[in-house]
Description:
Layout: H1 21-27, H2 29-47, H3 56-69, H4 80-87, H5 103-106, H6 110-119, H7 125-168, H8 171-176, H9 183-202, H10 206-220, H11 229-243, E1 247-251, E2 254-258, H12 261-286, H13 307-310, H14 316-321, H15 327-337, H16 349-362, H17 365-376, H18 382-392, H19 398-410, E3 416-418, E4 421-423, H20 430-438, H21 441-456, H22 467-486, H23 500-507, E5 518-519, E6 522-523, H24 531-554, H25 587-596, E7 603-606, E8 608-609, H26 613-616, E9 623-625, E10 629-630, E11 638-644, H27 648-658, E12 662-671, E13 674-681, H28 683-686, E14 691-696, H29 697-700, H30 716-729, H31 737-744, H32 749-771, E15 778-780, E16 784-789, H33 791-799, H34 809-814
Parallel strand pairs: 7-9, 7-14, 8-10
Antiparallel strand pairs: 1-2, 3-4, 5-6, 11-13, 12-13, 14-16, 15-16
Helix pairs in contact: 2-7, 3-4, 3-6, 4-7, 7-9, 7-23, 9-10, 9-11, 10-12, 11-22, 18-19, 21-24, 22-23, 30-32
Amino acid sequence: MDSSPAPAEPPPAPTPPSDPAWRRRLTGPGAAAAVLAAFWVLMLASLWHKSQTFDELGGATAGYTYWRFNDYRLDPESGNLPQRLVALPLLSGHYQFPSRDSAAWHSSNVWVLGYQWLYQSGNDAIGMLRRSRAVSGLLAVLLGALVWAWSRRLFGPWGGLLSLLLFVLSPAILANGALVTTDTAVALSFFAAVGGLWALLQRLTPLRLAGSALAMAALFVTKMSAPLIVPIALLLLAARLLAGGELPVAFGPWRGRLAGRGAQALAFAGAALVHALVAWAVIWASYGFRFSALADTRGGDRLFHRWELLLGKPDPLTLFGQLDLDPAQKTAVYHLLQNPALQSEPWAPTHVEALDYVRQKLLTPAQAQTLERLLAAPPPEWSARVIDFFRRHQLLPEAYLFGQSYMLRFSHLRNAFLNGEVSLTGWWWFFPYTFLVKTPLVVFGILALAVAAAVVRRRAPGAPPGWYATLPLWTLLGVYWIAAMLGNLNIGHRHLLPTYPPMVVLAGAAAWWLEGWGGAGRTVRSAFTSLSGRLAGAALGLLVAVLAAQVLVVFPNYLAFFNVLAGGPAHAYRHLVDSSLDWGQDLPGLERYLDRHPATGPVYLSYFGSASPNYYLSPAKHVRYLFSYLGQECPPAMVVVRLPLDNLKLRLAALVRDNPDYNIVGEGRTGANEESLALLLQPDALRLTGGTYCISASMLQPVMYQVQGPLGPWNPRYEAAYQTLAARVRPLLSADPKVRLAALGQHPLEDWVTTLSYYRMCRLARLTAFLREREPDDNVNHSILVYKLSDADVARAVDGPPPPFGTDFIRTVYGAGLP
């Protein structure tokens, strides 16, 4: 490329006046608007019969509560602005929201509350989702318009059209563009912020300063990864100062040019201060100019995670070990720690209760003072200390700081899957691999033509643009790619969405093979004057046509798109899961599949997602639920209830009527005025038999489990734990009520609840370990795999010899400290 810097700000590339009218219309704003309109319709049409994907529940619910209640407790780790935008069409729908006296509201549980709102409050969940998706799709349209305008400025009308076509025909954009998530808004915000900043660095005016500052502020209330814009801005600023050239400045009647780098740096420092102040004000405005995330703290309301957890402070169980306890105290604490409830997330409510109990009942005054000193110690990491400083001095809203802390805390360890492997920290090559297999191969061909054009045009007289004009695009690509590869959030290709706009703009360089470039008042001679140029232009047209045909063929399953390097979508589940393939979107597809293929036996479902299978699947299907994630409709194997003794017979009759799939067992007086009962699933509902097994791809792979669960390949440790659980649970599978009742009496009912839950999870893990050794019999849009299993197949998987063992990677990670 041209080694000398281009003019500080070349004018837009004009359409050569000799162009015929039809060419001007084909590459003009009207054509771009038509393409974007068709793009919006295509996105919505592809999602019309798709169920709610995982993160959409949180985005819609949180945004609605921001507007309705001025409360920011729900999903603060996601961006405030995109959640508000997608909730706008829901404000006029008069939808019934769950009571704010519920436990889910008090504990800020967006998953339970959103599930209740969408599926249990009598609302039209499908209609709500479609309205919000329409708004999110408009953000993708706006992003496409910016792509077209930027590419047109650099590479002329044909370059703008080519970049726009590459954008709207991208399966990644089509799959995520209209979802009710923050991904599209993040890509738009990064692209707009970089573009606005680059324009400001070329010419300093009030309008450009305001536009750049607002774009930057929007980015900071769109995604918690917004600080990534800082190194991008510093690199662009350094390049602008090193490139030299005067800086035009126009403020009101005063107009001039700053020639020295010192004066320019001072001017840019003032602009940076304006950016910081605007961002600070917009952040506060987004949270109602209130520090507390909670609008009302009556009733013991709290955020979903405690600040001690987010700031990385030692949890209560660790603090106990730092106290000088005597033998009697150690024995008491040891017995306390045997409570299964304490095996949950650190700083869960049960941990806090244990801490308070130890402090009040077991510690001496001196020990209590030591404990208070340990609790008051600053966070161990510097980033957490900075956030804690801002929180204690209320320099930013609590919900915003919560989101930043959440990102720093939980982005380092996250269950991830890639090519048969499971990891908690991910792989540096995860995103390069996803880009390689989820990008149509013809796009790589177009990128190669763009590179060839950039090389060839160096010999063209006055060929724009040089390295300087495209620098912001390269900088955004480079910094974002480095951050993605160094990060541990390997849960979905969608996180690369911000890299697609700059990439397709740069790909607009390939348009030179069609018509040549016009820019800075010059027109570069078309490459069509040579045979190689004509061949390259024909190849470019063919590649775009193939891409369009491929997009039409894949419709509407863009999330499941994989190219032939991964074996196509049919084998995608062996390479990637989660939001790269199966994000819970195909419940309507499963309903249609079961209509077309009526099952002769029971239908089992293990579903990955936060949507409601019961909402999308008709009761006539009689679906039985296996362990699922989140599994809000998977009926618990056992529920312990306590009924008052007054009108006990009537209460028991109502309990039997309302729970036909359960047997009432374990009756016993637990107090003067109540009876303790257990609702235990009937044996047929607890057992597995031959039938049609519908397994979400994300559930087939051993990744959607807790660290304490069967996470990773099946191994001897999991097999031993499963056999112990199976032996304990086996009497409960008996049809003889006496056998079941006798078994229940051997352990407390609360212990049985935990045992049965863990048993069902391990049973699915063992079953899927067998299923991974065979090809599915069918699939639903590649995201739900269908297996036709006989009674013998199920017996072999659940009760037969163990499946092939793999590496116990959890033991490898934790060693002696295995959870």
